[in-house]
Amino acid sequence: MNKRVRGAFSVEAVFLVPFVIFVIMALFYLSFYIYDRAVIQSALDRMIIREGQQLCHPTDINTGAIRYDMINQRSLFYSINYNKETENQKIQSYIKKELKNRLSITTITKIEGNMNQGNIEASVRGSINIPFLPAKEYLMDLLHYQISIKSKSYNPTKFSWIADGVLDVVDDTAIYDCVKKYLN
After folding, report:
1. Could you tell me which of 37, 66, 33 has the C-alpha nearest to residue 49?
2. Each residue's pLDDT tens digit, 86-102
3. CB count, 10 Å around CB of 42?
4. Which residues, at least 6 apart from 119, have a Cβ–Cβ distance to it below 8 Å?
5. Which of 44, 58, 66, 178 is the most exposed place for a label (fewest CB within 10 A)?
6. In angstroms, rounded to a whole number, what is the distance separating the alpha carbons of residues 31 and 138?
7. CA gap 184, 103 in Å, rounded
8. How far, CA to CA in Å, does 13 sit from each of 8, 27, 180?
9. How far apart are the first and last CA of the chain?
10. Rounded Cα gap, residues 106 and 136, in angstroms
11. Where are the beta strands (DSSP E) in 16-160?
12. pTM value?
């Protein structure tokens, strides 16, 4: 009777141990997946902050330091007439640099960056590399993902400069007197 019980445990262990190992490995890969998504989201968040600064002040996108020596070289309307292709390439290269050698199981397939009149957008597409081939067939849609971010840059200082310039021009016109009478 004792030998039969040992045999039953062995048979149950043969079925149970591979399942337990699979669950443990799945938890490891889930943690790597969550880590990779967090790294990508962090890189996109830093890029949004640095490019927002770039629209307000000339900055080094890699360090975030404001380039005070270049402030007077910009025109008043820089945020409208900057070189879009150069800025988009800066966005993409910054994200590539931030993600280089930091991802565990994700391979970056595409990085897009776009800055257009104060709107900053970026997205990263990636695919997860897992060694378990049967799972790849069933999880094909889940193994490819995209993380996107979108923001608008505001520059209150530049707005006040433009408003002050407009008020100086309007101050000398008859329209200003009409509006002033109407408001009083």
Report:
1. 66
2. 888 888 999 999 999 99
3. 13
4. 150, 151, 152, 153
5. 178
6. 20
7. 63
8. 9, 21, 89
9. 105
10. 14
11. 106-116, 119-128, 144-152
12. 0.72
